[in-house]
Amino acid sequence: MNMSLLERLEKLQDPKIAPYKESYDPALLRRLWWRLRYYALTNGKPLTANDRRIRGYHDHYRGQTAVLMGNGPTLNKVDFDLIKNLPTFGVNAIYLKRDEMGFLPTHYLVEDVFVAEDRAEEIDALAGPTKWFGNYLRYTLKGDHDTLWMNVSVSYGNFADFPYWSSNAGRIIYCGGTVSYLAMQLAYYMGFRRLILVGFDHHYVVPDDAEVSGTQILSHGGDPNHFDQTYFGQGKRWHVPMVERMEIAYEKAHKFWLQDGREIINATAGGALEVFPRRSLRDAIHEPFKDG
To answer: What pTM was computed for the model?
Structure first.
């Protein structure tokens, strides 16, 4: 039976473009446009102002050092005077720490739909950082002049070689079970030679009063897993943390950074993440780069 042109075009669609169809299922023409943009970017030809701005970040910080701030309780131990003049990446509700840090991150990312939905008003109002969101979050985040929309491939299945890695975030970027994995790909694309991690406790507990339904958790009390008790506090939703899968993603990022002569250093004051070499924050900032 011969397929119509529309049916053939529909088969070209990558289902990862709209992974949450109950929330956001863009029209076929929009999907095709995104697909065209993707193929154009594969050939180094951005078609939109958004894509040209993203491409402008390629190697923008070549050879520099950046700090990726996790949101664990150990973030409360960080001397923010040491990093306030460095390019920084922050995620999710990092802005709750703004007053204590004395600054907002240079670059800000969200991956989780629960964070995007539950904190949409706060995120939309956030001014200062360059905000990086996947196209699949357009249904809940408005975006503004600080926002860049990325082609994020959202797939959390148990497939071979999970998770995929992208060295070209201007074309596509892959989820790995933690928003930090997106940030590591983005920092690589930007050309950073060293990425310093702080606040990566890499340990989670589910409070007894939390309501668990499948992979969704609804909090009914304070949050013991982050720097602020209100982070995923009462009324906030979050996903069951899959630490083992997160470590697989971290190992993938570590591999690609190392093979290109770059490094990710864990300067968290404690925590359970042992994938990356550890240094004190001061040493990680001032330690000379290794040759090669």
So the answer is: 0.92
